[in-house]
Amino acid sequence: MLSVITRFALLIILAFFAGLMALSNFGPFFGIAAGIAVLAIPLMYSYINLARLRKYTLRDALESMSLPSGYWEEIFFRIQRLVRGLKQQIRSIEKQHNRFIEAFQASPNGILMLDDQDQIEWCNAISERFFGLNFKRDVMQRVNFLIRRPEFVQYLYKRQFEEPLLLERMGPKANLSLMLQAFPFGDKRHLLLVQDVTDLQKADAMRRDFVANVSHEMRTPITVLMGFLETMQSLDLGKAQQHQYFEMMMSQAQRMKSLVEDLLTLANLEANTLPAPMQLIQIPTLMALLKNDAEALSQGRHAFNFDISSADNLMGEEREILSAFGNLVSNAIRYTPDIASISANWRINAQGEGEFSVTDTGPGIASEHLSRLTERFYRVDRSRSRDTGGTGLGLAIVKHIANRHQAQLIIESTPGKGSTFTLRFPKERIAHLDS
Hints:
By secondary structure, the chain is of the alpha+beta class. The chain has 14 helices and 13 strands. The longest helix is centred in the middle third of the chain and has 37 residues, at 198-234.
């Protein structure tokens, strides 16, 4: 403050002496003019600096402005330093803000930030897809006006956010199950987190169906067995009738045994996700075993053609491959009418991949069933499958074995003409004869 007064006093003294000298030499008019000129020069300099300051401020370019000399240099220098510091803080805050936004955008869950009026302050791209929102269009809109599901509106109205809410049939194709929950934060604001639980819901439904199917499949033979046992306990039956009942009981017991064995096989395959080992499997030996088992199961009711078109063998787990090939052959026998033909073939295709295919001349399968054939317990004709001893797990086992061997299960079928089931193995699984 003292330096300012000193400079001002010095300016007044200079103006006084300049006016006095001009007055003594040139008269009063020039004396006044000289005093005003001395005072006007620093004022004009200050005005010029203020004009430059305004110009660079409007252009947001204070940092690039050259510093004036004199008293204004220190002022401009401090302003520039202050502006640089503020801009650096703003850039740091913006960078941190952008990192948070990128993290929220990378989240697999939907995130909506709601104000105290349940208006959308921000949402990420996942939540936009879940609910059909557009942030630029829907910002500051009440969320219950945009998501009009009655259960969601009720959830917001009750303000009981301790438990999550499940919304079914959501998403652009109405095929998603979404679990959402609101969490309070800040000044009466809420963070709405949304998780896609479609796969979990499907897995839970599959588990329930699996338990129900196993219970149903086991209950039928057990009921039959108990019925025969009660009959034999309460009635005095002849040996011929007893023998007949024992045969029927053995058939039902064998059915339960096959079901349990298939369930154990499927459980082991599902538990072992590692690729199958690269062990040499002799295709001629495998095909001979398949043919013997097929003829025993058919009991002369079908005509068979087992053909090996390539001398190359296969690398994998022999027990699993035999199970997969055997399931395809036994399925063809069970679903192909008597006096029909079934052919099994091993070949190497033009791409060098190994293919084992089973073709029958049975009734064929309608196209709407093809995508579901590998589901556990799924049957096109339930009654026929039970009559022929099928468990409904054969193709599910084949699919898991194929996955373990990096193979594909390809199903082609024409109603009234028959079906072809093909296991296609990659080139890496083929053991060439000359190797």
